[in-house]
Amino acid sequence: MKQPARITSQYRAPFGPVTFTVQDGHVINVELLKESSGKNPGAEKLPAVRNMKRYLDDYFSSRQPAHPKLFIQGTEFQKRIWETMLKIPPGQIRTYGELARELHTGSRAVAQACRCNPLPLIIPCHRVVAANGIGGFMGKRQQVDVKRWLLAHEGVHVH
Fold this sequence. Notes:
159 residues, alpha+beta, two-stranded parallel ribbon, 5 strands
């Protein structure tokens, strides 16, 4: 059976490009600060692309966005951590340690799940911080400024 096509689209966020991939009506991947490498004619007409762009419009306009359909790829353990992150509302943060205690695991496991998050912004790993400051973001040093921007956008200031 033929695999449904993966369609990549891009959104211009205030901090830079957000590239996302949809497949079979679901968002399967989001990448921050990454330019899309190709054009997908007709992508803007797809409901999954329109829904994701509406989600991003709402988020960046400080409206409560309706989550697009997601297909979350990861281990069962990662999914459990990500599902817990989904419950952290905008304007609130948790430390890696707090999430670890809630999930009966280690803070490094939580940090690793954040690093492997295929859907940043939607699964809000930016709302998980270190006990002594902001911590990392997506395993990339340059993206800590994006994490800081996202938290400030939500009304949270972390040093």
